[in-house]
């Protein structure tokens, strides 16, 4: 496998990893692009000052900015019909999260298949072809630039992601799992649900019988003629795969006791101020992440830098709320048993509360902590936001039946 290319400077991020920067980006987009989003969102004008889309995904992914805030902000400015498309796109993220949450085996199967593909990628003929693709040396107009944009910025426009994934699998004939892994390592918004399920959709696994094929005229139209790729695949075999597994129920959660507790943040939710903590008396807050486990190959330095600094930003905000959150916040060296136990002993607590970590590396880490913490007398509780709890149970079928529920979901979240 090719080594991870380092960005020019891991600290010089295109996306400033703070909530304030996310909110400023939202204000910018809301005043310039939101009203015309439905008609303009498919246009990829290239890196720079985009207003066709919000470029908020790095912030939403880590919940530096909440989905509910975007929807409320949109509805405060315009009637529902005028921003319906934007609200729907925000709910795509929620839908994918829920869909995977109800079918965790899909993530496990992907990880297993990925391990086998990475093994194959150690040898020819895959090794060289993969290296050429990951270095942006395929000669395919557009594709090579998207590789460079992804490596330099940690972001790609949605349409570019679709074209990229289609060319990767259908034109270059590379295994989709390696493409999904390449994205997950380099996208700052890299997300187990949105990423894996979007790749599955492109290759025809998500909606059985349907594949997504990038067409040269579509690329030319939506990039303002910047690219006119030649030789793109014009058909693709639908993979012989079983339909997705049936949905389970979202896992029930025990309520934390009304006792002093330590609040442990992961990269999944970095807005502790708005967590539904109810009667929990938080006496200390810390953060740790599992971003290095996004892939067996780790994650790009820029992804790690964003995650680390975004966590520092969340902790700094809790300092401003010190009366509510107790002791001085801290960064744990790792999401491991020893540092968590040492911190609990220091605080004198036997309860740890974690904002719910959906299917993915952070969840795996948290669940691996549960038995040894319990053995040491420390109980771990996860708390789920109303936004997720109301929507996820409806992610049982396709997006369109889910989308019909959006007005009801908005009402349930006090937004309708
Ligand atoms: C192959 C492929 C891989 C992808 N991988 C990821 C990923 O790892 N992480 C990720 O967050 N998104 C992923 N997406 C979805 C989508 O491309 C990005 O969410 C979107 O491009 C983010 O840009 P934006 O913030 O400017 O979006 P906007 O258009 O401004 O949308 C606002 C917000 O809505 C959500 N959203 C919009 N479109 C989608 C969508 N199609 N699916 C899910 N959420 C959406 C995002 O949170 C986004 O920030 C992927 C799509 C494809 C086709």
Care to describe what's here?
This protein has three domains: 19-101 and 392-412, Alpha Horseshoe (Serine Threonine Protein Phosphatase 5, Tetratricopeptide repeat); 106-222, DNA Cyclobutane Dipyrimidine Photolyase, subunit A, domain 3, CATH 1.10.579.10; 260-384, HUPs (Rossmann fold). It contains 19 helices and five strands. The longest helix is centred in the first third of the chain and has 22 residues, at 80-101. It has a five-stranded parallel beta sheet, with helices on both faces. β4, α16 and β5 (379-383) form a beta-alpha-beta unit. The model is unreliable at 1-11 (pLDDT under 50). The radius of gyration is 21 Å and the shape is globular. Helices cover 49% and strands 6% of the residues. α9 (158-171) packs across α11. With 416 residues, it is an alpha/beta fold. It binds flavin-adenine dinucleotide (FAD). The site of flavin-adenine dinucleotide has 28 residues, from α3, α5, α9 and α11. Residues 41, 53-57, 60-61, 89-90, 92-93, 96, 157-158, 161-162, 165, 183, 187, 189-191, 194-195, 198-199, 202 line the site of flavin-adenine dinucleotide.
């Amino acid at each position: 496998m090719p080594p991870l290319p380092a960005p020019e400077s891991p600290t010089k991020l295109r996306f400033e990893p703070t909530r304030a920067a996310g909110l400023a980006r939202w204000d910018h987009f809301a005043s310039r692009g939101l009203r015309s989003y439905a008609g303009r969102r498919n246009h990829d004008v290239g890196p720079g000052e985009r207003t066709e889309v919000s470029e908020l995904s790095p912030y939403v992914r880590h919940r530096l900015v909440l989905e509910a805030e975007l929807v409320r902000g949109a509805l405060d400015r315009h009637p529902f019909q005028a921003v319906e498309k934007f609200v729907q796109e925000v709910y795509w993220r929620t839908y994918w999260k829920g869909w995977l949450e109800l079918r965790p085996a899909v993530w496990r199967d992907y990880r297993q298949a990925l391990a086998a593909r990475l093994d194959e990628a150690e040898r020819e003929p895959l090794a060289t072809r993969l290296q050429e693709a990951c270095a942006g040396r395929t000669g395919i107009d557009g594709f090579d630039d998207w590789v460079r944009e992804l490596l330099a910025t940690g972001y790609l426009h949605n349409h570019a992601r679709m074209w990229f994934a289609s060319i990767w699998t259908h034109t270059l004939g590379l295994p989709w799992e390696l493409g999904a892994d390449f994205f997950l390592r380099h996208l700052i918004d890299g997300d187990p649900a949105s990423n894996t399920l979007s790749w599955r959709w492109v290759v025809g696994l998500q909606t059985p019988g349907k594949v997504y094929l990038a067409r040269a005229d579509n690329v030319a139209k939506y990039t303002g003629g910047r690219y006119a790729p030649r030789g793109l695949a014009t058909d693709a075999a639908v993979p012989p795969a079983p339909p997705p597994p049936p949905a389970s129920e979202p896992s029930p959660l025990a309520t934390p006791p009304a006792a002093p507790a330590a609040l442990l943040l992961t990269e999944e939710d970095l807005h502790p101020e708005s967590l539904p903590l109810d009667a929990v008396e938080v006496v200390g807050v810390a953060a740790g992440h599992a971003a290095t486990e996004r892939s067996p190959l780790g994650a790009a330095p820029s992804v790690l830098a964003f995650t680390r600094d975004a966590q520092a930003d969340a902790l700094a905000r809790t300092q401003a709320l010190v009366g509510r959150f107790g002791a001085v916040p801290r960064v744990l060296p790792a999401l491991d048993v020893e540092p968590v136990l040492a911190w609990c002993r220091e605080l004198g607590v036997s309860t740890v509360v974690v904002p719910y970590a959906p299917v993915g590396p952070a969840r795996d880490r948290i669940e691996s902590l549960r038995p040894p913490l319990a053995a040491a007398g420390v109980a771990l509780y996860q708390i789920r936001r109303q936004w997720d709890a109301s929507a996820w149970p409806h992610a049982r079928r396709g997006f369109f039946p889910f989308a019909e529920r959006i007005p009801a979901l908005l009402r349930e979240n006090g937004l309708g």
